[in-house]
């Protein structure tokens, strides 16, 4: 039986916070191994890296999620006992609810709401001395997400709600005030969503059938019961809050355009969907999710390594996206690499891997890609702007991270151009994607 490499540190909890994103990647390189063991919060944890290990991790017969997500992440990022922590039929049923919101017509509606907001903000920015793109993108995404979900949002609430959505995400990797801010934001957000669920159920808030608010409010769980109001509030937040989180990727996309202006011309070629490979490279190159966790369902052995029942297992998301076996020169920003990519569900996992319906892969991946492509078209053609001297450094020891300035634009002029109309939906057809439950390919 091969011996598993063990990190010599007695407990790595503080090292994870100190080293941030590259913590697992550094060790997989140091041990030259896709599998090694650490201790986290006093308990052993098996760490996995790379596509083959990701395939193992996303086998739902081998792992469960109940007990895998630390309380501090549940009380900020995702909500306590939400879909991310569910298994088996209970998870599948809840995931069907989320995937029902991701069909072509629903996505098209969101993209068209977003297009209108970018346009409106472009004119507003013309009057401002400077614009912090990250903050403005959060507001744009918040307005569109609420309108799409049919969650009422008063004008004077916009910046507060957008900030709260952002703080829930920002709180997951923080300690002290940052974590506390995330918890406060979540508790305000859940209270808000509880009032909406109650109003819908009492018939006081009319919402369209099929809209996210209606779907979540009237969804019946695997046991045939309506979700309790608190759980429905959490899941309605899970359908809206991550849309606002796309602001992080949009800010990184702006940074990529700034650092690699040569791509601007390629993105303008109507004969080539260059935006697709560009945003995929943004999702690969820039850090967002560091790792994901699961618990071993029953004892099993993989390549001779033992996985005892109940052990925590961490999959290195950040490092798998820069695994040299699949991504040569991983520290080079090079969108063309995606021209050859085989659409493998395990080697590129910025939003999780494996299958959508039977696994925990991100329900909103296709929304994310489409919203990013639209934002890149807007930044490239919908406005002209200057990028003044500012601190664009993003700190890999901070999770989540962002260019320190939030990406400041000055002298913004709206061009009236840019691919701001809703993007055409990709054609149906890929059998592989359909088999994986990809919402792009559901007719
Ligand atoms: C900002 C971009 C986003 C990132 C980086 C991201 C990342 C992730 C990751 C890493 C997971 C967990 C995968 C796993 O546990 O194995 C996840 C799950 C999830 N995401 Fe996203 N996500 C994003 C956007 C979205 C959007 C736009 C939505 C919906 C509108 C969404 C809804 C969900 C849901 C519901 C889950 C739970 C899936 C499950 O447990 O089955 N996400 N996301």
Automatic annotation (TrEMBL):
Pfam families: p450
GO terms, molecular function: heme binding; iron ion binding; monooxygenase activity; oxidoreductase activity, acting on paired donors, with incorporation or reduction of molecular oxygen
UniProt xrefs under InterPro entries: Cyt_P450 (IPR001128), Cyt_P450_E_grp-I (IPR002401), Cyt_P450_sf (IPR036396), Cytochrome_P450_3A (IPR050705)
Residues the entry annotates as binding heme: 362
CDD domains: CYP152 (cd11067)
Cofactor field: heme
Cytoplasm is among the record's keywords: no
Keyword annotations from UniProtKB, A to Z: Heme, Iron, Metal-binding, Oxidoreductase
PANTHER family: CYTOCHROME P450 FAMILY 3, FATTY-ACID PEROXYGENASE
Family: Belongs to the cytochrome P450 family.
Name of the molecule in the record: Fatty-acid peroxygenase
Native source species: Hymenobacter mucosus
